[in-house]
Amino acid sequence: GGRSYRHFVPLDYTLITDYGKSVVQSVSPTPDEIAMKSSTLRRITEICNNLVPGSQIIPFGSLVSGFATKGADMDLIFAHDSLHPQPFSHESNIPVRLANEFLKRGFEVDLLIRTRVPILKIKTPSNELGSRPGSPSAQETLKEDLDEEPWPENISCDIGFKAHLGITNSYFFRTYSQCDSRFREMVLFIKQWSKNRDLNSPYFGTLSSYGYVLMVAHFLINIVKPPVLPNLQLIPPEPDTPESELRQDGFDIWYFKDIAKITSGELLPGGKNEMGLGQLIYEFFQYFTTNFNFVSEVVTIRSLGGVMYKQHKGWTSARERVGETTTYQDRYLLALEDPFEITHNVGRTCGGPGVRRIRGEMQRAAQIIRKISTPVAPESPALAA
Ligand code: GTP
Ligand code: MG
Description:
The strands form four sheets. This protein has a five-stranded mixed beta sheet. It folds into two domains: 132 residues, Beta Polymerase, domain 2, CATH 3.30.460; 209 residues, Poly(a)-polymerase, middle domain. A hairpin with a 2-residue loop joins strand 6 and strand 7. It has 14 helices and eleven strands. By secondary structure, it is α+β, with helices and mostly antiparallel strands. Helix 7 packs across helix 8 and helix 11 packs across helix 13. It starts with a helix and ends with a helix. It is globular, with a radius of gyration of 24 Å. It binds guanosine-5'-triphosphate (GTP) and magnesium ion. The site of magnesium ion (MG) has 4 residues, from loops.
């Protein structure tokens, strides 16, 4: 009797690999978009520099890590190392003055000031669509008043005003994505899957893109055998490593950065992982639905072996954390440890229903892949008929 026969047939991942690659291809930004974004970044930096000489615009997020999808926002930080310790006192009010610079160029502008540090959200002007007939478009006004080239349309940027670990972790994941192209492919695929299945809304009880990046990294570094990626945080620094590469804001930020040495394979003594994209996608879903314990375990990147328990971190019951202007609800239903800010649960945005939906969708995905990847045995009735 071949009751569970099908489950013993090794899966053929060709279809899911092809599908995965086509998804990655279709969500990747075009060279045109990438060029447009670099020039936008240059021009925004120029505007900031004219307003505050010596200031800098530091990109982070998917722009730096290489995990950007088509039309992704640009995450930026306005920084300037002035001699004044309080650059954002009410007299200088740089965020407001910067907001005005973009307003007069026809950008959509939204300055959030109820947050701990102000956030300036801007969007480049769209050409003719918004303007009334007979009146000059924002871009035309711009040309008259400022004598500037038109801006590329509909690029959104978030500008923060305080440097933070987000910059460091973006470069960290950029290094990892340069080690093996399957990391970026996995991230883009999982990001797209999470959007299609409505699992990527941190404000509505599911997970941020960054959360999914952590899950993929955990799987490729610590879980799949042999690993696709070495654990760069566990390779000790040389004794003469400068302090700035070791610690930031009181957290350990060291990781190994020598790409040539990483790609040579010598850091993966277990041999190279040769799995195709399809198999990695399947095993990712399988791992999170059957091996990983959402109730007791923590998704971690830095730890040897990758197994860590909520109990161990004291991440057990929800608690309130009082911030400067708001009170946060820290939840630990889905525990994702940030690689550097290890007290921060990136999965805090997930509520009970969100976690159940994520798990359910992972089960569904694994089932579909099993179905389309089970080869039909030559002697089976399906072929014989
Ligand atoms: P897309 O915007 O979807 O293209 O992805 P992204 O890679 O830019 O991620 P996201 O916008 O979710 O986050 C932006 C950056 O904020 C991340 O790359 C991290 O460096 C940083 N970050 C640090 N902690 C958190 C966190 O708890 N949640 C989120 N969302 N971002 C964090
Ligand atoms: Mg982003």
